[in-house]
Amino acid sequence: MDRTETVRTSDGASAADDVVELILSDHRAMEELFREMRSVEADRTGALRRFADLLIAHSEAEESDVYPVLRRLDDVDDDEVEHGVHEHAEGNKALLALLDAGEPGGADWDAKLESLVEAVTHHLDEEERSLINDARENVAPAKRRELGRAFARARRDRLASAPGRVENVRRVVAAGTV
To answer: Residues 30-69: pLDDT tens digits?
Structure first.
């Protein structure tokens, strides 16, 4: 597909504004960054920096702009939303451990990377099977676009502050939630 084409959702709206598509796009970007961080031929430090920024900005935007709306839906289990928040905190702790592990390539760094991959991949899988499917099925397309614009704005604003800096990740972990 030509990159200039606009992907459309089933209702004909632009997928660029759909909160489901935006969240899934971030998830795929995180998976790609995991591949880079595992590759000895890649800029692993740069990939970690991009990953840390994306993880924190994505999680904070979900918790501030998406999860509160999902909590109000009758068809979405509040326990699933709370579980997502808990898993964000677990991912953040694993991220901090990797940021504190030193240079890429050491045994400790590789082990911490695998712990991060496991925590985040588990969350992505569960979120996609539960909350994302719930949003796809139970949130009207217009509301998904509204949520998507709010999520994108919050994510962009957070990314502008380089939220993956180790001192910020420490603050986030100490707060216990994103």
So the answer is: 999 999 999 999 999 999 999 999 999 999 999 999 999 8
* Number of domains within the chain: 1
pLDDT digits (tens, 9 = 90+) for 75-101: 777 788 888 999 999 999 999 999 999
* Residue 134: inside a domain: yes
Say whether 142 sits in a helix, a strand or coil: helix
Angle at 125 between CA 106 and CA 60, to 5 degrees: 80
Block residue for tokens 């939630």: 177
Residue ranges making up the domain that contains 36 = 19-175
Half-sphere exposure of 44 (CA within 13 A, CB side): 15
> Is residue 98 domain-resident?
yes
Take residue 3 and report the two structure tokens written for it: 């990159």
Inter-residue contact 166 to 99 (CB < 8 Å): yes
Burial of residue 7 (CB within 10 Å: 0-12, 13-18, 19+) is exposed
Q: Amino acid letter at 65?
A: D
